[in-house]
Amino acid sequence: MEPLAAVSFATTGASRAPGWQAQVRIDYAINKVAQTHRGQSEDTVAQAIHDQLRALGVVPNGRKVAEYATAISALPQLPPNNK
Fold this sequence. Notes:
By secondary structure, the protein is mainly alpha-helical. The protein has 3 helices and no strands.
């Protein structure tokens, strides 16, 4: 009998790190909140981040949400877009 060839799982090419989809969703939610809630209170920003992440199916990390909320609330508000 001939020996069987070894089974190998293809890990080259388009393989990505585990959790990459969650990180894309987090980045999207943070950018969206940063555009709409900058300059507002930390509590308001944190709640908006929490809501956005839950809507995208990501379980929020309270410590990271607080860090993002602090940074976004320190940003100046954007002028209105009157086109």
